[in-house]
Design a protein that fits this description.
single chain, about 160 residues, mainly beta, 14-stranded parallel beta sheet, 14 strands, about 0% helix
């Protein structure tokens, strides 16, 4: 596993940890107390599993322009700690412009913004067995997205 803690990421670099390639597996990582986003993903066939992403300044887990993204058994707590606008951007998880998304067994709570937010053309998504509670605003926000299935979640 890898731990990235207290990284002072400039906003133009987006995140303390960036997975910007196809077929990347991010497994058993801890990303906490960083200035901006915790983990950012752009790529096809990326898997994020068994991660703790906590108390990051902006978004805990961000993904954009991805295909067949898999997020499983990830704990997100207390993200958007720097109090970015939770109505427009701050969240535990924010995923945009992605085709083929599976979110399984994710626990996103206590974030200043939605626990899980799909936006701007997320299609063919499944959100299952997730715990999305005690967030500011929505536990789950599905916005400008299509074909999203939600099952067995506590929201």
């Amino acid at each position: 596993g890898l731990t990235v803690r207290r990284w002072s990421t400039p906003l133009d670099r987006l995140a303390a940890v960036r997975a910007y390639a196809d077929d990347v597996v991010v497994d058993h990582v801890v990303v906490e107390d960083n200035a901006a986003m915790g983990l950012s993903v752009i790529g096809d066939g990326v898997v994020v599993s068994d991660a703790d992403i906590e108390r990051n300044g902006y978004i805990g887990l961000h993904a954009h322009d991805s295909t067949d993204l898999w997020v499983q058994m990830v704990d997100l707590d207390g993200n958007n700690a720097a109090h970015f606008d939770p109505v427009h951007s701050g969240a535990g998880v924010k995923i945009t412009s992605t085709d083929g998304l599976t979110v399984l067994g994710v626990r996103s709570w206590g974030n200043e913004g939605p626990g899980l937010w799909t936006d701007l053309a997320v299609h063919d998504a499944t959100v299952a067995a997730c715990d999305l509670v005690d967030n500011v605003g929505s536990g789950l926000l599905i916005e400008l997205s299509g074909s999203v299935r939600v099952t067995g979640c506590r929201i």
